[in-house]
Backbone:
């Protein structure tokens, strides 16, 4: 059973919305950071949005700030990414992650989002294509 299961991607027109979901198959999630990353063709994987345990701290990439919203449901060990007013530049495969934050490896949510190379395991991701 995969530890990270992303879903909700698809084809959407510019200006439209999508809601991505990710089930993190762990016994509990409440003391972990969660995050979303994406990789467009020919580009490096980048952090999109990361949230601290409890949700008190959130980091968004500048390119999605004001358009995307990250959330979490710890009871379901699930994180969501609401994508609004999407643009063609949002076309990518989207991945989720979890991390034990607050330590030297990921001191804060910005640190998590800026460090995709520190993760060794990735799920299959979900493809988002923005096109008219």
Residues:
């Amino acid at each position: 059973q995969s530890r990270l299961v992303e879903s909700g991607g698809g084809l959407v027109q510019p200006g439209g919305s999508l809601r991505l979901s990710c089930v993190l198959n762990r016994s509990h999630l409440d003391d972990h950071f969660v995050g979303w990353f994406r990789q467009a063709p020919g580009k490096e994987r980048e952090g999109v949005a990361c949230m601290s345990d409890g949700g008190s701290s959130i980091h968004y990439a500048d390119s999605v700030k004001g358009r995307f919203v990250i959330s979490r449901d710890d009871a379901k060990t699930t994180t969501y990414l609401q994508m609004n007013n999407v643009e063609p530049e949002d076309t990518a495969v989207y991945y989720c992650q979890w991390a034990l934050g607050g330590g030297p490896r990921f001191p804060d949510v910005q640190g998590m989002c800026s460090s995709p190379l520190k993760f060794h395991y990735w799920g299959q991701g979900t493809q988002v294509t923005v096109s008219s």
About this structure: The two ends are 36 Å apart (CA to CA). Residues 19 and 110 are 22 Å apart (CA to CA).
